[in-house]
Design a protein that fits this description.
The protein has 14 helices and 13 strands. By secondary structure, the chain is α/β, with parallel strands linked by helices. It has two domains: about 190 residues, Rossmann fold, CATH 3.40.50; about 190 residues, Glycogen Phosphorylase B (Rossmann fold, 3-Layer(aba) Sandwich), CATH 3.40.50.2000. Strand 4, helix 4 and strand 5 form a beta-alpha-beta unit.
């Protein structure tokens, strides 16, 4: 089955890029022949050799982005005609996919998080996105939080929570060397996420500061996808210094896949404390699944997609958003109870195996076949 995947990038520097790269790589083993459509200046390469068309404009490129994307509908339609299903992997391009997909072809959309609802809150484009959503045959939601956020603003014909994904095999075998900047001593709490307000890094800093006297050996490693300065990144560094933990926090960026895996496997536990900010929220957090694959427990927040990535007191602990003392108490509990941490880590690793990219691709292949058969019945023809 040929499936046209509409993606912004296959660079694993953000959730969109990693999801696209890994799903396309896992697709062939599930009986899917992927056809990848990306932005012209993507610069990334798929994890496997696939048919690829870099014909779309850059994503989130500013004013008139929607109009510029819709102008590429004829090019996308020509590509899609050789396929049986179109699956759009980034929410801002749903109107493009809905316009380009042939009328008798199933359209699937993945809703990751904030960008599934941002356009539905904007008066000038809400109608366009709502109509495009109504055209979808299936909305794949990364979490219940994302599904409920979309449902509060629009009604897709059919939706399903189907989270992905992780490569459990990447976390097996000898532990690789630490990347430059990794602390040479102490127990490490690892946090992985872009340096932006909704990731809750400021709350994490306050939690670590609250443990400074009881756990003087504790270190926090924060890994982000990009180097460079930003106002928020600078504010976080200043906050760490003001809390008296500037020398306990290590900021790493742009690590290779192998280096990131080594970070997970060398850490005592994983910490990410997402908060709602400016209408944005954490849709799932693939990093929670990566931590699970490494066999370490995670601390996340309620009210975010972490509730579908972390099972409370089974694979990790969940605390109220914005509550640094509660986060500190959860970290302290795991550090003081190695048996608990080990139990949660083992359960997390088992859960990660069930959420592999290959399992996600297999599940999606079944949905694609079902949609194609349904369309064939509607047309009155044989599947």
């Amino acid at each position: 089955m040929r499936v046209c995947y509409v993606a912004a990038t296959v660079r694993p520097t953000d959730g969109w890029g990693r999801y696209a790269r890994e799903l396309v790589a896992a697709a062939p083993a599930a009986g899917i022949e992927p056809v990848l459509v990306t932005a012209r200046r993507d610069g990334g390469e798929p994890a496997a050799a696939v048919e690829r068309y870099p014909v779309l404009p850059p994503l989130l490129a500013g004013r008139c982005e929607l109009v510029r994307s819709l102008l590429r509908a004829p090019a996308l339609r020509r590509i899609a005609r050789s396929c049986e299903v179109v699956h759009c992997l980034v929410e801002p391009w749903l109107p493009l996919a809905a316009l380009a997909v042939p009328a008798n072809m199933p359209l699937v959309q993945t809703a990751h998080g904030s960008w599934a609802v941002h356009p539905l809150r904007r008066p000038l484009v809400r109608h366009v996105f709502a109509r495009a959503l109504a055209r979808t045959d299936l909305l794949i939601c990364q979490s219940r939080v994302t599904r409920d956020a979309v449902a509060a603003l629009a009604t897709p014909p059919r939706s399903e929570v189907l989270a992905g994904g992780v490569d459990p095999e990447a976390y097996i075998g000898p532990v690789g060397p630490p990347p430059p900047g990794w602390p040479v001593q102490g127990r490490v709490v690892l946090s992985v996420g872009a340096l932006k307000p909704r990731k809750g890094h400021e709350i994490a800093l306050e939690a670590i500061a609250g443990l400074a006297s009881s756990h003087p050996e504790l270190r926090l490693v924060v890994v982000s996808g990009r180097t460079g300065r930003s106002l928020h990144a600078d504010a976080l560094r200043r906050r760490a210094a003001a809390l008296g933990i500037g020398d306990r926090v290590h900021w790493l960026a742009e690590l290779s896949d192998a280096e990131l895996v080594a970070c997970y496997r060398r850490a005592a536990l994983f910490l990410l404390l997402p908060v709602a900010h400016g209408g944005s929220f954490e849709g799932l957090g693939l990093v929670f699944l990566e931590a699970a694959a490494a066999g370490i427990p995670a601390v996340g927040t309620l009210g975010s997609g972490a509730v579908d990535a972390v099972a409370e007191d089974v694979t990790g602990l969940l605390v109220p958003p914005g509550d640094a003392p509660a986060a500190a108490a959860a970290i302290d509990r795991l550090l003081r109870d190695p048996a608990l941490a080990e139990r949660l880590g083992r359960a997390a690793q088992a859960a990660a195996r069930r959420r592999s990219w290959s399992n996600l691709a297999q599940a999606l292949a079944g949905r694609y076949r079902d949609l194609v058969e349904r369309r064939a019945v509607i047309r009155g023809g044989a599947p």
